[in-house]
Specification:
The chain is mostly helical. Helices cover 63% and strands 2% of the residues. A hairpin with an 8-residue loop joins strand 2 and strand 3. The N terminus is likely disordered. Pfam families: DUF885.
Length: 582
């Protein structure tokens, strides 16, 4: 029988593996500890234990340099281990840890700490999540809460100094992104705004603590947010880069290559990603042409999208109707998923509209993991331009974000007994790739209500593999990118602008959806062709999901090993049968 180590690594074991001072498990645990010292909020998002809740994490240059040095030590330790000797669980942990450390090392060229003004995942966006998860049940926890939130002013001042250093060194966020962040900050601190971080005070049963926490909001938190906002408006905005591409940064080309590696876990060049994306777009268009009964050359995308968007059955009468339909689709997907998965996650999923401070801020609908299985995950639904949204949009979105998409996958991760680094180090190609694969899976399950959704599902995929490297490495303008994305009809004009600014601040991330989705599909087709009638979709899905997020290269080795094992199993049965007949 093949072990997971053999499936993952396909390397012959030496007779006597060289000794190593610490186990893979211990090294991975240290990696998690270093990352949580940098970003404690990751513990809340991924259900990881956090020893103390009194800090926002490391941000000064010395602190960041110390973390990098520690990562280098751990990378050296891990390299001394012979992976072929490892048992199943450690083989998975090794593959995930190795990829995480290598990707982190490669990303250093980007100097991300020098231009971390981000409307998608910026620190100001994360504050409400930290506040909601801040434990305040015991006197010690309440003391740590006051210590953490009382330190925000100094943390923000360090952040401002990093950004000043970035400006002087040629690193900055794109100007449109800065404008979006300023709007978000205004909604958090403007006149009449309700503080989005008052959850600890609201949840506490200790009146003295509640009063002290509210005082910190008034004397530390709000002034820090306003100070950051003034800095961005008065000093940073004029120096922020006018272009969107990362190519404007020093070592921008190397940064983009490292970002591709980080998000996809692959070694593909931007050119290879663009070629694969373009060929996939062409194949999708050919399928659409066949569905509409027209030759490919006669396919008129603008007219096709006009007919989809203006179809009387494809619109909504209210924001509430979108919200209601989304909840119905989540349950519909959940029930259908029972047919092709061994189990569904125990974790609940809540469909939630955006809070006031995020409305109109350019943050798209998305999935927020609950962390541990006992805390519900959230499907955050953006309905700002509900009049322009379509039923076909919402169907694709719901099956991507909920069932059989992100929540099914990430909920099972929350249930898994893998090493904590598997939760922390999940890569976009695995998570977003699964979401894209799930969109097609929903069609196999008959979940789409009309041909409109089935056509629209094929219009958007792989465009990100073309537009993202085009924007960051090929000099694409905003206008050029806008029209390439808008013609798919998958997004409204406002959502298309949102997407472009998201691409600008997260170079490489948009390629991961289809880099991963194509890999999931290719692995399934390979297994189906090799195993024929012995292929089990339920078993295949378990193979993909049971070990949690792994690099795509490791996933491919796992599938190859599974196919080989199934093939040998069949050969053994046939040999036994021939022996019996004799």
């Amino acid at each position: 029988m093949l072990t997971m180590a053999m499936l993952l690594l396909s390397v012959s074991s030496p007779a006597e593996p060289p000794p190593h001072p610490r186990s893979v498990d211990a090294i991975a645990t240290q990696v998690v500890e270093v990352q949580l010292s940098l970003e404690p909020v990751a513990a809340y998002l991924h259900g990881l234990p956090l020893p103390r809740h009194d800090s926002f994490g490391a941000r000064t240059p010395d602190e960041l340099a110390g973390a990098r040095d520690r990562y280098d030590e751990l990378r050296t330790e891990l390299a001394a281990i012979d992976p072929s000797s490892l048992p199943e669980r450690d083989a998975v942990t090794f593959a995930v840890t190795e990829e995480y450390l290598q990707a982190e090392h490669g990303l250093r060229v980007c100097r991300r700490e020098l231009w971390a003004v981000d409307h998608m995942f910026g620190w100001h966006r994360i504050l409400p999540i930290i506040a909601a998860r801040q434990p305040v049940d015991t006197p010690e926890q309440r003391s740590q809460a006051l210590q953490r939130w009382g330190s925000l002013g100094a943390w923000v001042d360090a952040e401002i100094e990093n950004l000043r250093t970035g400006l002087s060194a040629g690193y900055s966020a794109p100007r449109p992104v800065v404008v979006r962040v300023l709007a978000q900050l205004e909604s958090m601190t403007g006149e009449g705004a309700t503080s989005p971080v008052d959850s600890p005070a609201a949840r506490a049963t200790d009146p003295a603590f509640a009063s002290a926490f509210q005082e910190i909001i008034g004397e530390v938190v709000d002034p820090a947010l306003r100070r950051y906002s003034r800095f961005l408006k008065d000093e940073y905005l004029s120096g922020a880069r006018a272009g969107l591409g990362i190519s404007e940064h020093p070592s921008g080309e190397a940064c983009y290559a490292a970002s591709l590696r980080y998000y996809t876990t692959l070694q593909d060049s931007p050119e290879a990603i663009m070629r694969l994306g373009a060929s996939t777009v062409a194949r999708n268009l050919a399928e659409i042409a066949a569905m509409t009964g027209k030759p490919r050359r006669d396919l008129d995308l603008p007219e096709l999208m006009r007919s989809i968007r203006e179809h009387p059955a494809n619109g909504f009468a209210s924001e509430e109707e979108i919200f209601g339909l989304t909840k119905e689709l989540v349950e519909k997907g959940r029930q259908a998923s029972k047919e092709i998965f061994v189990a569904l996650p125990r974790q609940r999923l809540e469909v939630t509209l955006y809070p006031p401070h995020l409305r109109g801020s350019g943050v798209s609908s998305h999935y927020e993991p609950g962390g541990d299985a006992g805390r519900p995950a959230r499907f955050m639904l953006q309905t700002d331009d509900w009049e322009q949204q379509r039923r076909s949009d919402i169907e694709i979105l719901a099956f991507h974000e909920a069932f059989p998409g992100h929540h099914l996958q990430q909920g099972l991760v929350a249930d898994a007994q893998s090493h904590p680094i598997s939760r922390l180090a999940g890569n976009s190609a695995y998570t977003e790739g699964w979401g894209r694969y799930a969109e097609a899976l929903a069609e196999e399950l008959g979940l789409y209500s009309s041909e409109l959704s089935r056509i629209q599902r094929r219009l958007w995929p792989a465009r990100g593999m073309v537009a993202d490297p085009g924007l960051h490495t090929k000099g694409w303008t905003r206008d050029q990118t806008y029209h390439y994305l808008l013609e798919t009809g998958r997004f409204t004009p406002a959502q298309t602008d949102d997407l472009i600014d998201r691409m600008a601040i997260l170079p490489g991330q948009l390629t991961a959806y289809d880099a991963g989705g194509l890999q999931f599909r290719a692995l399934r087709e390979k297994a189906e062709a090799a195993l024929g009638s012995r292929f089990s979709l339920v078993q295949f899905h378990s193979l993909l999901l049971d070990k949690g997020p792994v690099p795509l290269s490791a996933l491919q080795r796992m599938v190859d090993g599974w196919i080989a094992a199934k093939t040998r199993e069949r050969a053994g049965v046939e040999d036994a049968g021939r022996g019996t007949s004799r």
